[in-house]
């Protein structure tokens, strides 16, 4: 048995270089059969619930179906329409604005919390770590519903708080303030998660580096900025990528808040909501597929571009 | 609360599926009934409906029918149910046999061939049981797409105690209504006279209709032609009236159907609730009510007291879907489920529905019914029967959901001071015309 396993990797290496057929290739093929067997349950589910629907939806997006005249093949017509559709474009600009505000906000909170927690060693730090993480453990819909009550002028605490200090009560659900209200919900919910990722990266740094830094005379701030931060840059890149994808697909929080602020959040507030409204409120399944695909392509392009630009920091190069 | 959460969760799940491109539709098994099947051998007809206390009505039907049995599911209220139905139509399976639909969405589904023309299945035999307005709402040309169930003739529910406190008589015209709003504000009342919700949808449409607005002309016999006229003189007059009240701060502009709004309806924040006949049932179901509140009902205010115009807000029907397996049996259910006095007594007393079925609508029992919520006032006799009798029917567009969403956007822009009321309606007109064009309609 042991000889078989140790002999395994070698033929793979030779085959990958594509030179000679290794003597063990027959054995290798047999092992690969077993491999396929083990991945097949996953592949079946993957193909059935992701690959097939993707192809199906892409097929749908090439047709145009109208209420009055039925369905006809229009090729890329829906895509041309999507990229000239002001509602889709406004939604894209809006999520881009969200990305510019929301990602740094989450990152700064998460990074500060992680750096502070990393340098503390009391029982308090363990408790704080848990407390900061708790919002992430709350389902997104419930979190958004909870905030919608907090923002409510009738039920929320804001009226009591602001009158107590003699200020006018702000309306968190007006068209001018809803942006900030949404940023707040997302930051509250996700910072804890990113904090844990960054914190784990910080813990994996060899403490002897800090010792060396201390001997060289670096203070706490310098250690944090010059040593810790560069050493966790790959985790930071990962966190930003997650946040970027999540923000471009922004959906749940605005949908929940739309229940109490229909004027400020319209049906096409984000591209994802637009696709949803088109499909399920206006029964334009074909155009909705095209919007969903266009968004998917942009998200892919956006994250790819980001990973390419940060390939040095992330170690992907 | 819980069902709301589930609904939102479901929405998210569906949307997530939409993004990954999975629109295969959901599999609804017709075999899961909420109710008990009395005669297991009989044909089963699946029904989606969200009436309160509907279980008793279903039991009554099943006990009195040997050959047909109802298998009832509550698939969500209003748009939640329509979304499921729409997806089922697109998927080609998963719709129930009989579905509860508000009359305003009938053409949205009949244009997608989702509903069966019931004239083949004896709809005209029961035509005489309904008022002309109610029947017009369910028919398009010669076709009949549903059987009317309940209606929403409008009246004005008001807080007698608040109006008395400020020496205001219940307004009978919109001029008096505006004057009352001013009196209330000048007296420094903590609340306002009423709310003008920008997301009122059918409510706002009804207010326009009172001044003669006929927003859509559409007939299923000519399914590619539509007439759109949402910026007519009547609508403009009504909207500029409300816009004035909003600008002066005499009415609130809170979104309707939110938790805040529900509380404000019953805690005295609004002294008047211009409502449909189902409004009293809605009010009495709300919590946190002011315990000293004295509610009374009066006819809806008029533009011209000499020529009163009655309006309608909401109302629902039973339609047979194109996916029904046994259309004959399904039509029997649609016609007969609310076709007995016993069923209607449950509907009226437990669900606070306003019947459109004439034998009960015109009965002494219904006319003389006293409502404890209104201090024993006979609100049907005083207000709603007359309102129902004066209603002549309404035509909705086959893309009503879109039209309402656009209306909400325009009204919101108006209350935000971004545009005048006239401009809002002109913009609504052009956005609907564009949409109709994109959807392949020719404008009349």
Structure in a nutshell:
The complex is a heterodimer of chains A (317) and B (444). Chain A has 317 residues and is mainly alpha-helical.
Structural account:
Chain B: This is Sugar ABC transporter substrate-binding protein. Chain B: It comes from Agromyces allii. Chain B: Keywords: Signal. Chain B: Pfam families: SBP_bac_1. The complex is a heterodimer of chains A (317) and B (444). Chain A has 317 residues and is mainly alpha-helical. Chain A has 2 domains: 2-61, no CATH class; 78-314, Orthogonal Bundle (MetI-like fold), CATH 1.10.3720. Chain A has helices spanning 2-7, 9-17, 25-61, 77-82, 86-119, 123-137, 140-151, 158-164, 178-203, 207-215, 220-231, 233-248, 252-258, 271-280, 285-309, 311-314; strands at 63-66, 70-73. In chain A, strand 1 (63-66) and strand 2 form a beta hairpin. The longest helix of chain A is centred in the first third of the chain and has 37 residues, at 25-61. Chain A is flat, with a radius of gyration of 26 Å. The relative contact order of chain A is 0.11. Residues 1-30 of chain B have low confidence and may be disordered. Chain B has 18 helices and 12 strands. Classes of the chains: A mainly alpha (317), B alpha/beta (444).
Tell me roughly what share of residues is in helical segments of chain B.
Answer: 40-55%
Domain count of chain A, please report it.
2
Number of individual domains of chain B: 2
Mean pLDDT of chain B: 90
What is the number of helices of chain A? Answer: 16
Second-tier CATH architecture of the largest domain in chain A: Orthogonal Bundle
How do the strands line up in the largest sheet of chain A? 1-2
Query: Could you say which structural class the secondary elements and strand pairing of chain A correspond to?
Result: mainly alpha
The CATH homologous superfamily of the largest domain in chain B is termed Periplasmic binding protein-like II
Termini Cα gap of chain B: 45 Å
End-to-end Cα distance of chain A: 37 Å
What's the CATH class label of the largest domain in chain A?
Mainly Alpha
What is the CATH superfamily classification of the largest domain in chain A? MetI-like
Oligomer: heterodimer
């Amino acid at each position: 048995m042991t000889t078989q396993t140790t002999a395994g990797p070698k033929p793979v290496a030779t085959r990958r270089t594509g030179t000679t057929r290794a003597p063990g290739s027959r054995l290798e093929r047999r092992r690969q059969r077993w491999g396929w067997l083990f991945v097949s349950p996953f592949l079946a589910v993957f193909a059935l619930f992701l690959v097939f629907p993707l192809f199906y939806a892409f097929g749908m997006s090439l047709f145009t179906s109208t209420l009055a005249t039925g369905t006809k093949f229009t090729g890329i017509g829906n895509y041309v329409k999507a990229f000239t559709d002001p509602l889709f474009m406004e939604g894209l600009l809006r999520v881009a604005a969200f990305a510019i505000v929301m990602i740094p906000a989450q990152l700064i909170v998460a990074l500060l919390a992680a750096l502070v927690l990393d340098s503390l060693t009391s029982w308090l730090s363990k408790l704080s770590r848990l407390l900061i993480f708790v919002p992430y453990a709350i389902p997104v819909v419930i979190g958004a519903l909870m905030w919608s009550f907090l923002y409510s002028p009738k039920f929320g605490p804001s009226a009591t708080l602001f009158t107590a200090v003699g200020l006018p009560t702000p309306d968190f659900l007006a068209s001018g303030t809803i942006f900030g209200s949404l940023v707040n919900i997302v930051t509250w919910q996700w910072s804890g998660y990113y904090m844990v990722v960054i914190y784990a990266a910080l813990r994996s740094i060899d403490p002897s580096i800090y010792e060396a830094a201390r001997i060289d005379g670096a203070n706490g701030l310098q250690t944090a900025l010059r040593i810790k931060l560069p050493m966790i840059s790959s985790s930071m890149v990962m966190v930003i990528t997650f946040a970027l994808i999540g923000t471009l697909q922004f959906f749940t929080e605005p949908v929940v808040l739309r229940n109490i602020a229909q004027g400020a959040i319209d049906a096409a507030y984000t591209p994802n909501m637009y696709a949803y409204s088109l499909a399920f409120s206006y029964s334009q399944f074909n155009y909705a597929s095209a919007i969903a695909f266009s968004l998917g392509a942009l998200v892919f392009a956006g994250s790819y571009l980001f990973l390419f630009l940060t390939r040095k920091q992330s170690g992907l190069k | 609360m819980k069902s709301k959460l589930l609904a939102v969760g479901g929405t998210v799940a569906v949307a997530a599926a939409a993004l990954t491109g999975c629109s295969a539709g959901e599999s609804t098994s017709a075999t899961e009934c909420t109710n008990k099947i009395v005669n297991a051998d009989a044909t089963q007809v699946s029904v989606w409906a969200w009436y309160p206390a509907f279980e008793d009505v279903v039991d009554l039907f099943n006990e009195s029918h040997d050959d047909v049995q109802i298998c009832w599911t509550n698939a969500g209220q209003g748009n939640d149910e329509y979304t499921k139905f729409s997806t089922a139509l697109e998927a080609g399976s998963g719709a129930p046999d009989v579905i509860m639909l508000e009359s305003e969405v009938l053409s949205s589904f009949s244009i997608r061939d989702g509903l069966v023309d019931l004239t083949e299945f004896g709809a005209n035999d029961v035509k005489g049981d309904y008022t002309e307005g109610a029947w017009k709402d369910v028919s398009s040309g010669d076709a009949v797409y549903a059987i009317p169930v309940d209606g929403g003739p409008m009246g004005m529910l008001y807080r007698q105690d608040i109006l008395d406190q400020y020496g205001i008589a219940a307004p009978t015209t919109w001029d008096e209504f505006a004057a009352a709003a001013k009196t209330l504000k000048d007296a420094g009342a903590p609340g306002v006279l009423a709310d003008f919700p920008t997301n009122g949808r059918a409510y706002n449409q009804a207010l326009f209709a009172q001044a003669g607005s006929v927003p859509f002309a559409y007939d299923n016999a000519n399914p590619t032609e539509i007439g759109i006229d949402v910026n007519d003189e009547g609508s403009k007059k009504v909207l500029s009236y409300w816009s004035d009240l909003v600008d002066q701060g005499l009415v609130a502009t809170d979104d309707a159907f939110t938790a805040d709004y529900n509380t404000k309806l019953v805690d005295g924040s609004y002294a008047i609730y211009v409502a449909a006949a189902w409004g009293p049932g809605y009010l009495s179901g709300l919590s946190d009510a002011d315990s000293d509140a004295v509610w009374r009902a009066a006819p809806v205010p008029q533009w011209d007291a000499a020529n009163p115009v009655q309006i309608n807000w909401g109302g629902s029907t039973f339609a047979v879907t194109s996916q029904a397996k046994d259309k004959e049996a399904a039509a029997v259910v649609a016609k007969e489920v609310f076709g007995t006095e016993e069923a209607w007594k449950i509907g009226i007393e437990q669900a606070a529905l306003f019947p459109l079925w004439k034998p009960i609508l015109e009965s002494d029992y219904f006319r003389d019914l006293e409502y404890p919520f209104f201090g024993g006032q006979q609100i049907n006799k005083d207000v709603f029967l007359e309102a129902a009798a004066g209603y002549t029917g309404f035509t909705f567009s086959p893309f009503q959901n879109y039209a309402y969403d656009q209306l909400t956007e325009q009204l919101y822009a108006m209350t935000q001071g971004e545009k005048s009321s006239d401009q809002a309606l002109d913009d609504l007109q052009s956005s609907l015309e564009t949409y109709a064009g994109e959807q392949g309609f020719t404008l009349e």
